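re: ur msg from earlier - yeah i can do the iron/sulfur cluster complex, just paste it... oh wait u already did. ok heres what im feeding in:
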Amino acid sequence: MLKKIIIARHHGFCMGVKRAIKIAEETAREEIGNVTILNEIVHNEAVVEMFNRQGVNQAFSVDDVEKGTVIISAHGIAPAVIKDARAKGLKVVDATCPLVSRIYSIINKIVTNGYDVIHYGDPGHDETHGIVGQAPEHITVVSSRDELLALPQWKDRKLGFTVQTTAHLEEFAEIEKLAREKWPHIEIFNTICNATGERQNAIMDLAPRVDLVLVVGSQSSANSRRLARISAAICGRGTLIGSAQDIDEGWFTGDDGVKAVGISAGASTPDFLVEEVIDRLVQISGDAAEVILPEEATSGDQEQGAK
Ligand code: SF4
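and the outut:
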């Protein structure tokens, strides 16, 4: 029988996601019918559907937008895409998270000073596309320690190193160490954002106290997938669920059933999805489970600024 539902201290919408949604909502209100979001505004189906219902268009290429306004998502975009959009006469509204833009600034500054950049991130992620687009001839993307070790020695090059905002803190610490060993002269910029660090640390506090962690988020959300992976490594069971509908009542029945469940959510997951999950769990427990909110529990965050 489920007895405890413990909520992660930090979970859900981050500053960059809240900001992007606000910008998109304001733009949709002002420019009715002519607004297109390039890529997913944030990686969450419920949020994407909300904008679809408001009549906001969705496209994955400027080639597919004929007129009106395009909104750049929180993950950012390559400058060449913005240039193409403006060349077509489209108005561009930029909702790129300032902490992604900060990586652009770092890269542009050091490339101007003669550096090449190694970027640690998922090569298929929108954020990586935008980052590589800042200086395509000067950036090499690696997504694993093996790829890093396979790179040339580049003794004659000035090297900088940046990292995806949502990377795994501990994995990056190992990558950073390897990079410093391989290139003692490399300049490393830890560009993992505060929201990512807070959510990963909160999961590490939560997971040892429960039998199962449910992370609410979309499969397309890299930071949600990572939270599920971290919790699975700690408590043995960490599952990514899109919504309350994905909860299997069987997890909580029988002698081996889950007694204490932890709840977290990715940075792109709206509060209502988390609330529905909590309500469903309380219902499964027959209204018997205690819902424990840590003293400093926050959905979203007030933080920001430095990474
Ligand atoms: S996860 Fe970090 S970088 Fe990404 S939108 Fe949120 S605050 Fe910005």
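cool cool. The domain at 99-188 is CATH 3.40.1010.20 (Cobalt-precorrin-4 Transmethylase; domain 1). ping me if u need the other ligands too
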